[in-house]
Amino acid sequence: MIKLFKRMWRYLTARGNAAFNEAADPKIQLEQAIQEAQEQHRRLKEQAANVIANQKQTEIRLNRTMEEYEKVSKNARQAVLMADDASKRGDEDKMAEYTSAAEAFANRMIALENEVEDLKALHLQASQAADQAKSAVNQNSALYRRSSANARS
Q1: What is the distance between the alpha carbons of residues 152 and 2, in angstroms, rounded to a whole number?
Q2: 5-30 pLDDT, tens digit each
Q3: CB neighbourhood size of 76 (10 A)
């Protein structure tokens, strides 16, 4: 029984669509198709812009993290040198303080190394997505121009 109703519904909708298409003005249908294509192209460009913006943000985060890594690395080297100097002077308290600081910097460096690796992978993915988005916009733009030119001829 349900199958019968489904078949009847599909038949009625198909018949209604066919009747509508026969009665519809081709000029209006053409304008609607052009407007729909313009809207689709606009949405595609917005999505591409968002993807490219995401790629740029990832790149900025990666650069900042790499700069922070460099600073922490310099601080760790300085702390090791100062600990070594304190050891040579025989100042055990300062040596322990500088060694502790060097260990803290080393731990931060490990965390930053992991973050840099994650950001590199994310940046690679974002770059690929941005390239694909640019390509999609270019293809859609060319298709839209051809369709527009053919429709108005």
Answers
A1: 46
A2: 788 888 878 877 777 667 667 777 77
A3: 19
**Does 148 or 40 have the greater pLDDT score?**
40
Out of 1.20.120, 2.40.128, 1.10.10, 1.10.287, which CATH number does the structure's domain 35-152 have? 1.10.287
pTM check: above 0.85 = no
End-to-end CA distance of the chain: 50
Taking the C-alpha atoms of residue 100 and residue 87, their distance in angstroms, rounded to an integer, is 13
What are the sequence ranges of the domains in the chain?
Answer: 35-152
What is the rounded CA–CA span in Å between residue 111 and residue 72?
Answer: 11
d(CA 85, CA 80): 9
* Two tokens, residue 33: 């198709």
